[in-house]
Amino acid sequence: MNSRARELLLRYWDFPVFASLLQGQGVTLENASVLDVGCGSGYTTLLISERFSPRRLDAFDVVPGQVELAKNRGIDANIFIADVVDPKLPEHSYDAVFVCGVLHHCPEWRTGLARVANLLRDGGILLVEEPGSRHIQLETLLMGRPPANGAWTGLESFKTELASVGLSIVD
Fold first, then answer.
1. The pTM of the whole model exceeds 0.90
2. Nearest to 44 by CA among 83, 105, 1
3. Residue 36: which of 49, 23, 25, 26 has the closest Cα?
4. Backbone angles phi, psi at 136, to 5 degrees
5. What does the alpha-carbon distance between residue 78 and residue 80 come to, in Å, rounded to a whole number?
């Protein structure tokens, strides 16, 4: 979703939380190979570039118009069209992958999560921002239908699915 409120939330809440979590684990993404999954208009790609200065930054979205908007931001990144359920990228090629507000829109989010997990190198980090059940209720009310045709049920099912693809949550 492209909105000023969403951008403010990402810049002043989500990305500072990501940075704090990485710092707490002694991880830097400077000189890392980083992927932004579902980059939309490129705002998250911009934040990744500004805050983390990765050596290589790739970003994709399934919507061609969004990819064009992202490219027009002038970010030093390889931005292209792809789908989270079949991104057609080499396995084990990224040190970190960001997924911000994407999976809850994807009916096959479990497949997408598995594909993303396979893109991480050993010791790689997956940084995810997805809504909980209250947000899903609000989005359902506003849109007249649940996102991803009801496939996304909230963070608890996401946490369970993480283990099935070999990932774990680090506090």
1. yes
2. 1
3. 49
4. -60, -40
5. 7
Residue 133 to residue 114: CA distance in whole angstroms: 22
What's the pLDDT tens digit per position in 98-122?
Answer: 999 999 989 999 999 999 999 999 9
pLDDT 10s digits, 112-151: 999 999 999 999 999 999 887 787 788 888 888 887 877 8
Give 61's strand partners. Answer: 81
Please say whether the beta carbons of 167 and 160 come within 8 A.
Answer: no
> Pick from 139, 136, 168: which is nearest to 152 by CA?
136
Alpha helices in 4-97 (DSSP H): 4-9, 15-24, 43-52, 64-71
